[in-house]
Amino acid sequence: GDSVTQMEGPVTLSEEAFLTINCTYTATGYPSLFWYVQYPGEGLQLLLKATKADDKGSNKGFEATYRKETTSFHLEKGSVQVSDSAVYFCALSPNTGFQKLVFGTGTRLLVSP
Amino acid sequence: EAQVTQNPRYLITVTGKKLTVTCSQNMNHEYMSWYRQDPGLGLRQIYYSMNVEVTDKGDVPEGYKVSRKEKRNFPLILESPSPNQTSLYFCASGRTGQETQYFGPGTRLLVL
Fold it and tell me: Do A44 and B45 touch (CB under 8 A)?
């Protein structure tokens, strides 16, 4: 079945460091890919998405490129801030018409001043 | 403000005592869904609804019930809660044909 694998956390960085959170997926067909972010005590918010191969999603300085050849959707940011501390979830939608989201296990990011 | 609301936000109960977690959205979304979040497992879908009176099982439906009598509301019912249902629960909604889902703030449930 469809699945998403994320790197385990926590990822601990200093402010202004470069961030990469790895995400790979297994799916039949051509899923859409998402990154959701969960700030402490809050629900999930959509951060960015990509719906087809080679698409790049971007938002708030974060970027991720849909790589079909490597089945990956790694999240990157050039310079993290303390306010980026959160849990990041990679997810896919199988495009079966039922709007199901399959989530990875989440990666906690801790940014220190 | 467009939002998904859940109540209660925190709940401690005992095994076997029926409870309901409410979910409401004000975006006129057709699709609604319940997830549970557990450490090391991410979010797993419990039930979903494509529209009023249309519900279906997700990946982990055992021990849960849902209903969709109105478009805006999608309550999650635990008829006889057990300790393995201790978890963080999220409700989400979305527009049919659009993959983006909007999540509520979560309900943290502890079953003793």
Answer: no
Chain B contact for A44 (CB, 8 A cutoff):
yes
Residues on chain A touching B40 (C-beta within 8 angstroms): 105
Closest CA to A41 of A87, A102, A101: A87
Dump pLDDT digits (tens) for A42-60.
889 999 999 989 999 999 9
pLDDT at A10: 94
Q: Considering only alpha carbons, which residue of chain A is nearest residue B102?
A: A45
Phi first, then psi, for residue A68 (nearest 5°) are: -70, -35
- pLDDT at residue A98, as a whole number: 61
Mutate to test the interface with A, among B43, B56, B103 (most CBs of A within 10 A): B43
- Give the 3-state secondary structure of residue A4: strand
Strands B107-111 and B10-13: parallel
CA distances from A82 to A49, A59, A112, B16 (A): 23, 17, 6, 43
Q: What is the pLDDT of residues B60-85, one digit of tens each?
A: 999 999 999 999 999 999 999 999 99
